[in-house]
Specification:
The structure is a single chain. By secondary structure, this protein is α/β, with parallel strands linked by helices. The protein has two domains: 51-136 and 241-278, D-Maltodextrin-Binding Protein, domain 2 (3-Layer(aba) Sandwich); 139-233, D-Maltodextrin-Binding Protein, domain 2. It is 34% helix and 20% strand. The protein has ten helices and 15 strands. A five-stranded mixed β-sheet has the order 11-10-12-9-13, sandwiched between helices. It has a three-stranded parallel β-sheet with strand order 5-1-6. A three-stranded antiparallel β-sheet has the order 2-3-4, covered by helices on one side. The longest helix has 16 residues, at 252-267.
Length: 284
């Protein structure tokens, strides 16, 4: 078991690359996981007869079916951007399948890449290759709209009551890392958020993606209650949610091509455009 100090240091180190693209405090932060020293070569894959991405319909805002029955989302736009960078738009295809069928479909040659949040584990690495990561799902603190809380939150939240969702990795992380807070467990995220709105707790610590949906809903009201405070928290031990493109095993050329496209999309500002489009309440 890591010590509290070790966990906190690991979190700070992991968070640093994600905030490499600095922005004014009132502007959305765009995550950037790329090493500026990396130099990637563009393989020529224009001879591919197709570039078919396989995804799902139940992973908003990454991929889902909208009110007009269209498959939309961050991953859908990212797939098209990858095709554009590799000069494959004429043969670019996107198909949705149930999540449980994706790996078998890729293995059977029914697709060329997975954009569906496939977990990167020793088990999945036995059958799949993965591109370089392009996204991570952070944890965040949330306070009321008029809160004075600011970094360093470890000091600002000393002795404060913080809502967490019982039984989650985020609750375990908060307990292990922030020994000066007083965590209060709730059965669901909605219940924890309701307690924050009702001024029954001083802050909430939870999954950034799920919480961003609640904050986005609040922003649509006349008087939003709450906002993210402080920065993102990333931990490979507690919430290792890295997103990368899953690819057929041992196709080095395709993997290098996708890596090149992802880096180019980032450097040209296309990733930032897609991020702001699909994450109006920034996770970072």
């Amino acid at each position: 078991m890591f010590s509290r100090l070790a966990i906190l240091l690991m979190t700070i180190v992991l968070a640093a690359p994600a905030l490499a693209q600095t922005a004014p405090s009132d502007a959305p932060r765009i995550p950037n996981f790329w090493d500026p020293q990396d130099r990637l070569i563009k393989p020529d894959v224009r001879a591919l007869p197709r570039m078919r991405f396989l995804t799902v319909t139940d992973f908003p805002p990454f991929s889902f079916v909208d009110d007009q029955k269209r498959l939309v989302g961050f991953h859908i736009d990212l797939a098209r951007a990858i095709c554009a960078e590799l000069e494959l738009l004429p043969v670019c295809q996107i198909q949705a399948l149930p999540f449980g069928e994706l790996e078998a479909a890729l293995r059977d040659g029914k697709g060329d890449a997975l954009l569906a949040g496939t977990a990167i584990t020793p088990a999945t690495r036995r059958n799949l290759d993965f591109s370089k990561r392009y996204f991570r799902l952070p944890a965040r603190f949330v306070g009321r709209i008029d809160t004075s809380l600011q970094e360093p939150l470890t000091r600002a939240l000393s002795g404060k009551t913080v809502a967490v969702v019982a039984g989650t990795a985020h609750a375990a992380f908060a307990k292990a890392t922030f020994d000066r807070i007083s965590p209060r467990a709730f059965p669901t995220l909605n219940a924890a958020f309701a307690a924050l709105k009702a001024d029954q707790v001083d802050a909430m610590f939870a999954d950034g993606l799920a919480t961003s949906f609640l904050l986005q809903r609040e922003e649509a009201t006349a008087a939003p209650c709450c906002r993210f405070v402080g920065g993102p928290y990333l931990s490979k031990q507690y919430f290792p949610g890295e997103l990368a493109v899953a690819l057929p095993k041992d196709n080095r050329t395709l993997r290098d091509a996708v890596d090149y496209a992802l880096r180019s999309i980032n450097d040209k500002g296309i990733f930032a455009e897609l991020y702001l489009r699909w994450f109006p309440v920034s996770l970072y």
